[in-house]
Every structure is written in C-alpha cells, then in structure tokens.
C-alpha cells in the first residue's frame, strides 16, 4: 500500500492540516485510506518492511491479537510523518500528540510503535479513551499532532 494514495487526507470536507504562523496543526489521523476505501485492519494492510519492523510473528494467535493495533499505530504515525514532510518538516518538529484509543489496553502496543518514529525525544502527549470512532468500529486509534516549523 502506498501512503501517497490518501494517507493524511481527510475523509470529509475539512483540512488535513493547517499552518498558523510557525505551527502546523494536523487534524486527527485514523488508519483509513480514503482514496482506496481501505481501513487498516492488520499486518496485511501495511508494507512488508513495516510488518517485519513491528514484529509480525507468523503465529495466528499472536498476530491476530497484536496485529490490528500495531498496524493501525504504524499507519497513523507514518501518515503523520508523510503529512509533516509534505508541509516541509520532519518528525522531530512534532512536539505534541493527542492520542485517542477505543481501548486503553492498546496503549503499550502503540507506545512501542511510537518509539520507532520518535527514537530520541518523544513529544508531549495526551491519551484519551473514547467509546467510538468514525467511520467504523474497526478504527482503534486516532492521533492528532502539532509541530513547530518556523517559516
């Protein structure tokens, strides 16, 4: 799956991101590619290199439990990376994340993935559990980001 095919693009009529002075504000990003009509549901929906990096084991019981949140976490953070780079920045410019989970038990899995994208200094962070997300109950996570990117 190529992230250029819709990652970081909104599902409805709102801006995916907006610059305000030296700040870039990203709308919440979910693991959905609107161009392809694809909800990331597991390892099979992300590139093989990412599957390997996240530790796909090939064991059904492990991969079916961990795969959905790991793959969705990777897709959302990769979408943020792509969006920030398209705005002229890099992940180290991201200083704040707000993470919404359907189940807070998923946070440790997400945290493992987040360390891949922020290996040095993690952004300040807010974590919230919500009861539902659009467009489907299959969406387990949504992340919004704020970056400082001087003109």
Could you name the key traits of this structure?
single chain, 151 residues, alpha+beta, 60s Ribosomal Protein L30, Chain: A, 5-stranded mixed beta sheet, 7 strands, globular
How do the helices and strands line up, and which of them pair or pack?
Elements: E1 17-20, E2 23-26, E3 32-33, E4 38-39, H1 48-54, H2 60-86, E5 94-101, H3 107-117, E6 124-129, E7 141-148
Parallel strand pairs: 5-6
Antiparallel strand pairs: 1-2, 2-7, 3-4, 5-7
Helix pairs in contact: 2-3
Structure description:
The structure is a single chain. With 151 residues, the chain is of the alpha+beta class. 30% of the residues lie in helices and 23% in strands. It is built from 3 helices and 7 strands. It has helices at 48-54, 60-86, 107-117, and strands at 17-20, 23-26, 32-33, 38-39, 94-101, 124-129, 141-148. Helix 2 crosses helix 3. 34% of the residues are buried.
Most strands sheet: 5 strands, mixed
Annotated CATH homologous superfamily: RutC-like
CATH-defined architecture:
2-Layer Sandwich
* Number of individual domains: 1
What is the helix tally?
3
Q: How big a fraction of the residues is strand? A: 15-25%
Mean pLDDT: 91
Radius of gyration: 15 Å
Q: The CATH topology, please?
A: 60s Ribosomal Protein L30, Chain: A
Structural class: alpha+beta
CATH class: Alpha Beta
- Low-pLDDT parts are none
Q: Helicity level, as a percent range? A: 25-40%
Distance between the termini: 32 Å
Describe the global form. globular
Could you state the order of secondary-structure elements as H and E? EEEEHHEHEE
What's the short story on this structure?
With 151 residues, the chain is of the alpha+beta class. The protein contains 3 helices and 7 strands; from the N terminus they run E-E-E-E-H-H-E-H-E-E. The chain has one domain (3-148): RutC-like (60s Ribosomal Protein L30, Chain: A, 2-Layer Sandwich), CATH 3.30.1330.40.
């Amino acid at each position: 799956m190529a992230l250029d095919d819709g990652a970081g693009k909104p599902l409805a009529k709102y801006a995916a991101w907006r610059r305000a002075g030296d700040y870039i504000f990203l709308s919440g990003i979910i693991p959905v590619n609107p161009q392809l009509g694809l909800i990331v549901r597991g390892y099979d929906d992300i590139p093989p290199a990412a599957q390997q990096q996240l530790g796909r084991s090939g064991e059904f019981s492990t991969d079916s439990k961990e795969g959905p949140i790991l793959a969705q976490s990777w897709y959302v953070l990769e979408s943020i990376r792509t969006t920030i780079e398209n705005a002229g920045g890099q992940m180290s410019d991201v200083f704040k994340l707000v993470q919404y989970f359907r189940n807070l038990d998923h946070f440790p899995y997400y945290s493992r993935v987040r360390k891949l994208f922020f290996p040095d200094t993690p952004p300040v962070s807010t974590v919230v559990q919500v009861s539902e997300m659009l467009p489907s109950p299959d969406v387990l996570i949504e992340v919004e980001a704020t970056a400082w990117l001087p003109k």
